[in-house]
Amino acid sequence: MMLESARPFVDIHPPVAEALAAKRPVVALESTIITHGMPYPDNGAMAADVEKIITEEGAVPATIAVVNGRIKIGLSDGERESLAMTVDAMKLSRADLAFAVAEGRTGGTTVAATMICAALAGIKVFATGGIGGVHKGAEKSFDISADLDELARTPVIVVSAGAKAILDIEKTLEVLETRGVPVIGNGCEVMPAFWSRQSPFRAPLMLDSPEKIAELFNVRRALGLEGGMLVANPVPEDHEIPAAEMAGYIEAAQKAAEAQKIVGKAVTPFLLGKILELTGGRSLKTNIALVENNARVAARVAKAL
Ligand code: PSU
Ligand code: MN
Questions:
Q1: Of 51, 84, 116, 262, which is least surrounded by CB within 10 A?
Q2: CA dihedral 158, 162, 166, 169 (to 10 degrees)
Q3: Which family does it belong to (predicted)?
Q4: Which atom of ligand 1 is nearest to the CA of 30?
């Protein structure tokens, strides 16, 4: 199933390989959220919890990362914990995934790079927190995440709590539409906003069961439509931080980023870190809750496929 020429660079963790061979459900997980999205030791605890949730739902988790130049499809507990402690990991997207492999480096894979690796391994479903998108002020900075282009070309279902609310959600939805990516509210009419259940924008499409999401994916493939799908799944109510309250923290974080001239790949990790500080750790608790919730939905979609 895997591109023959990629095989020498990829290690598939034995339980994942067995599940794929037996056509049992597998859910991919990204690792930039571990290396750049959350502080130690919460990052490692979150990564372990999310794997546990997927297992409890009856699917096999495959956390994807690059370790010393090897593309890892699934990590052992030890490998996952040591990645959580790595301080100099790269943040890998389509542009630098192969660089890390060629140079024997270690890195967390973003949504884009995780989709590429998942597709190589034949994994169709992937859970994350929030995708990257069009940054506020992108008309000047041109900062648009490679996650959006990847969704347009690689056939993987990404379950997220929408785009991170530090982004321009309206422009992110516009780009996704232009690039032909279906964005599906998971039982919700309104697009979620990561830490908050609602953004000011409608979800372009709505489906209310894992079976229907799986069916849409199959129909797209049958029609020869390339690319993936974005499932937008709101954070559970008891963990949400209302959008009005978040707006203040986001603005303050953005001002700090500007003042400190943070650019490029460093922007998203900086903003997430700053917001964690401003909310006294509350944003992190919400972030963990929403990833866990996405993992549950992703496992159910994987089972339905
Ligand atoms: N979801 C989270 N935390 C994160 C990310 C997602 O809850 O840190 C990561 C993802 O890996 C996503 C990346 O692909 O942030 C987007 O980075 P950028 O905006 O630089 O493309
Ligand atoms: Mn960017």
A1: 262
A2: 110
A3: Belongs to the pseudouridine-5'-phosphate glycosidase family.
A4: 11
